[in-house]
Design a protein that fits this description.
The protein is α/β, with parallel strands linked by helices. The chain contains 11 helices and 12 strands. Helix content is about 40%, strand content about 20%. Helix 5 packs across helix 6 and helix 9 packs antiparallel against helix 10. Bound molecules: 3-isopropylmalic acid and magnesium ion. Magnesium ion binds next to helix 8.
Length: about 350
């Protein structure tokens, strides 16, 4: 009997619903071809709902979403809502409440895609960042005192527990082994300045590596140097693991090296629970409703979702079709310059399947 999966779809804001629709189109084509069932349920979380109801996320959201096999997200961020409200109230809240403690972000240059990194191609730019997704500055204690005076103090601390660090590193080691490309895991930190938090990371990294993963080579990079090597020698990297804030920053840089936000996908993963997959590019509100935005990032996020669900063959097939489209069809990845409409790009990948 073929397997069946219930998928929650949060189209979200701006161009989010448009790219999510193309992702769903391709997922449906993959299900038909590889003989499994997908059942989609839409949720209207996002800026418009917030403006209408004054509620960012219903109390029951996390517990409802927990009933699904996976969550597929378009984008969160609305030009008429003050920055921070939706990002913190929807995206980060779901990541935390569903304990999606891994943010998996492949940096992969597809064939035919132009990278701003001179002299590097798909062979050289192909690695994965494992970003810790549940702690760090993102949840750190903080606050103001004497706000509005010249003595104002603002604090936001980078807080990590052993438990958070260990579970993230374990995932990263296991992922590196499963990926089986170069069996190299690089820890990205700042041990020369953040001598408490990254001392903890480095200690657990080495202890765990020595005890359980002697087949995996361990490297260490400072985060600033990592930015340098991501441009100069991206071929050094196989899998990188890092904390929440550094992971946020270096994956935007990584996205640019793979041709831009139009193709960068990510997964917010709870290996023991419900995960959420998204294009990492944001809602690009100025392109809303024009059918010009690139849906490939959402389509790749869909492939990552299938891989996590265990439909690996289908995930690989989608990636192959995306590679075919970038190599042979699209003129550019940029919105409005692809040579195709958003819906046509979805059709190309779906037909390829
Ligand atoms: C990302 C985004 C989010 C983050 C924002 C929108 C809260 O930049 O997914 O990388 O910082 O994690
Ligand atoms: Mg980011």
């Amino acid at each position: 009997m073929s397997k069946a999966y219930n998928i929650a779809v949060i189209g979200g804001d701006g161009t989010g619903p448009e790219v999510a629709a193309e992702g769903v189109k391709v997922l449906k084509a993959a299900a038909a071809k590889f003989d499994f069932k997908l059942d989609f349920t839409d949720f209207d979380y996002g800026g418009d709902r917030y403006i209408r109801t004054n509620e960012v996320l219903p109390e029951s959201a996390a517990s409802e979403l927990e009933q699904f096999d996976s969550i597929f997200l378009g984008a969160i961020g609305h030009p008429d809502v003050k920055p921070g409200i939706l990002e913190k109230g929807i995206l980060l809240k779901l990541r935390f409440e569903l304990d999606q403690y891994i943010n998996l972000r492949p940096v992969k240059l597809f064939p035919g895609v132009e990278t701003p990194v001179m002299g590097k191609g798909p062979e050289e730019i192909d690695y994965v960042v494992v970003r810790e997704n549940s702690g760090g500055i993102y949840t750190g204690t903080g606050g103001f005192s004497m706000k509005g005076t010249e003595n104002e103090v603002a604090v936001q601390s980078m807080v990590y527990t052993y438990h958070q660090v260990a579970r993230c590193l374990k995932y990263a080691f296991e992922y590196t082994r499963k990926r089986g490309r170069r069996n190299t895991l690089g820890l990205v930190g700042k041990t020369n300045v953040l001598t408490y938090v990254f001392d903890l990371w480095e200690r657990v990294f080495n202890e765990m590596g020595e005890a359980d993963y002697s087949d995996i080579r361990r490297d260490y990079y400072h985060v600033d140097a990592t930015c340098m090597w991501m441009i100069k020698n991206p071929e050094w990297f196989d899998v990188l693991v890092t904390g929440n804030m550094f992971g946020d920053i270096i994956t935007d840089l990584g996205a640019m090296t793979q041709g831009g936000m139009g193709i960068a996908a990510g997964g917010n993963i709870n290996p023991e629970g419900v995960s959420m997959f998204e294009p990492i590019g944001g809602s690009a509100p100025k392109y809303t409703g024009q059918n010009v935005i690139n849906p490939l990032a959402a389509i790749c996020a869909g492939a990552m979702m299938l891989d996590e669900l265990g439909e690996t063959e289908a995930a690989i097939a989608i990636e192959k079709c995306v590679a075919d489209v970038t190599a042979n069809k699209l003129k550019s990845l940029a919105a409005g310059r692809m040579g195709y409409r958003t819906t046509e790009v979805g059709d190309l990948v779906a037909e390829g399947l």
